[in-house]
Design goal:
Blueprint lengths: L1 E6 L3 H9 L8 E7 L2 H11 L3 E5 L7 H10 L5 E6 L4 H8 L5 E4 L4 H28 L3 H11 L13 H6 L7 E8 L10 H5 L8 E6 L2 E7 L1 H16 L11 E5 L9 H13 L10 E3 L15 H16 L3 H16 L5 H22 L10 H10 L3 H23 L2 H14 L6 H7 L4 H12 L3 H19 L4 H7 L5 H12 L3 H11 L3
Parallel strand pairs: 1-2, 1-3, 3-4, 4-5, 9-10
Antiparallel strand pairs: 6-8, 6-9, 7-8
């Protein structure tokens, strides 16, 4: 049985937590409870519980300081933070001490059950990894491989094992090295194939070494030939989009730079490891992440705090309330770009975005309560953002909820704002292949209905407005640039230069070439 400690200054809350779920069935024995910070810290040190339910606001020593002191004293167990309100600063502070689970009062039974079950899985996984590491230390070659990759020396490993002759004896000496790390593309889905099995098709097994480091599979490529073959392997990812269910689809792969000596292998590993830590920022369907995609050392990280979150909330809420999908999405993309280069880690970003969405939801509820049906409940919303694997998934999730709210508001406010959004969309995207059938659904309308609505409000059809916009831009380029006609055609959305020339002549009464000539001679605008 695992040991449980409940720390809260209110006796009725402690009693409620004891019975809210069946702790015995979840594998926990209720050993102790604390009503203040010093008592909680003493019990953590003396009983070493596996799980602590800790209220943030404890007498004498607050919950965050209890956690900090416990970690400083070597406590490795799990914490669930209990708070009476959503507080970004406290949550961010807790993250620094390894706390990733927090619940707001009153505690929801199902939410607590889900969190404890997830913690149980983490504890089981950590126990399994520790058991594997205990076995690995008795395998000399694997230990050398680990030491070579990580650059961390083991006291029980002879230094000679890592010199040139020692590496040659183990088949680990080469003229070049590169480290690749791999995980599953979706962390909660086991891969059907291992990277080692797939590599065997491209690289002989004696030209690379395979090991496990901190629960992550690692490949050490040995020699320039193996590295060239690995590059061929990577081409299979970049040649065409991968289909779900294919062997390669289940793998997410990072790789560090190529190095020329054993003592530099750890540099390649550290690059690959940093890319694993940054996979949260990968674009959709990205299965490989190379060292050349790391931010440069001269890139200055942007500082984001709770005040920044409030500013974003005000801006996003404003665009929701005026029913502007275009401006809302533009601001959401700005938020996405900012968090990609900010000074917060992945867990802090999740909390930051959660805080923004909760504020948006609260503010929209005051002015448009009927829109609440489009937002998930707070517990579900927090869980959804917490468990999404990639940043782009979180952004899509936020966009989906808020866009539905915007469409509801727009349906009650009339067509004007919708038309303004479409016009803005055309003005910014005229160079793309736009059709009414593609654009109308983006704004929540049937294409036939919206085509009539657009013509009524603008006194011009959708296609005619798009064509006029393209012609205006084409004339600017003909007058003010030296681009060739076919280049201008492509710039304004026409892949076929002959079709562009025909449309231009119908609009302006002369060919693009004649227009350029006459405008420069006569100063035509």
């Amino acid at each position: 049985m695992r040991k449980l400690l409940i720390a809260d200054d209110e006796a009725n809350i402690r009693e409620g937590l004891k019975v809210i779920i069946d702790w015995d069935e979840l594998g926990y024995s209720f050993d102790c409870e604390a009503s203040d910070g010093p008592g909680a810290l003493e019990l953590i040190q003396s009983n070493d519980p596996d799980l602590v339910l800790m209220d943030i606001h404890m007498p004498f020593i607050n919950g965050i300081d209890v956690i900090r002191q416990a970690r400083d004293n070597g406590y490795k167990g799990k914490f669930i933070i209990l708070s009476g309100y959503s507080d970004f600063a406290f949550a961010k502070a807790a993250i620094r001490y390894g706390v990733t689970d927090y619940l707001t009062k009153p505690i929801d039974e199902d939410e607590l059950m889900d969190v404890v079950n997830r913690i149980n899985k983490d504890l089981e996984k950590e126990s399994s990894i520790n058991g594997q590491n205990d076995i690995m230390q008795y395998k000399a070659k694997d230990t050398v491989i680990n030491e070579l990759i990580t650059g961390i020396c083991h006291d029980d490993m002879p230094k000679a094992a890592l010199d040139k002759e020692g590496l040659k004896k183990l088949g680990l000496y080469a003229d070049a090295y590169q480290v690749a790390l791999y995980e599953t593309y979706q962390g909660n889905v086991s891969p059907e194939y291992s990277l080692k099995d797939l590599l065997n098709i491209f690289i002989p097994s004696d030209e690379y070494a395979h090991t496990t480091i901190d629960g992550r599979d690692a490949i050490l490529l040995l020699g320039k030939k193996a590295i060239r073959q690995f590059e061929r392997f990577l081409e299979h990812y970049n040649y065409r989009p991968l289909q779900k269910g294919s062997p390669l689809y289940s793998i997410f792969l990072t790789y560090g730079e190529i190095v020329d000596s054993p003592d530099k292998v750890c540099e390649s590993y550290n690059s690959a490891l940093e890319l694993c830590r940054r996979r949260f920022f990968c674009s959709e369907d990205a299965h490989t992440f190379g060292f050349n995609q790391l931010p440069g050392k001269d890139v200055r990280l942007k500082h984001i705090d709770a005040l920044s979150g409030k500013e974003y909330c005000i801006k996003l809420c404003g665009y929701i309330q005026i029913a502007s999908i275009d401006k809302f999405r533009q601001s959401l993309m700005e938020l996405d770009s900012d968090v990609r280069i900010c000074d917060m880690n992945e867990d802090e970003i999740r909390l930051f975005l959660t805080d923004i969405v909760l504020q948006i939801k609260e503010q929209i509820n005051r002015t448009y309560p009927e829109c609440m049906e489009y937002f998930d409940g707070n517990s579900q919303l927090i869980e959804q953002i917490k468990t999404r694997f990639y940043l782009y998934e979180i952004v899509k999730y936020i966009d989906s909820m808020c866009t539905k709210a915007i469409q509801n508001i727009r349906s009650k406010s009339g067509a004007e704002s919708a038309i303004e959004d479409v016009v803005s969309y055309i003005d910014h995207n005229y160079a793309q292949s736009l059709t009414l059938e593609e654009v109308a659904p983006l704004f929540g309308y049937n294409s036939v209905y919206f085509g009539k609505l657009f013509s009524k409000e603008m006194n011009i059809s959708f296609n005619s407005y798009l064509n006029e916009k393209r012609m205006i831009e084409a004339k600017k380029l003909l007058r003010d640039s030296e681009l060739k006609v076919y280049e201008i055609a492509a710039r304004v959305g026409y892949n076929d230069v002959d079709y562009f020339s025909k449309k231009f002549k119908n609009s302006e009464g002369k060919s693009p070439a004649d227009y350029r000539r006459s405008s420069r001679i006569g100063g035509q605008k």
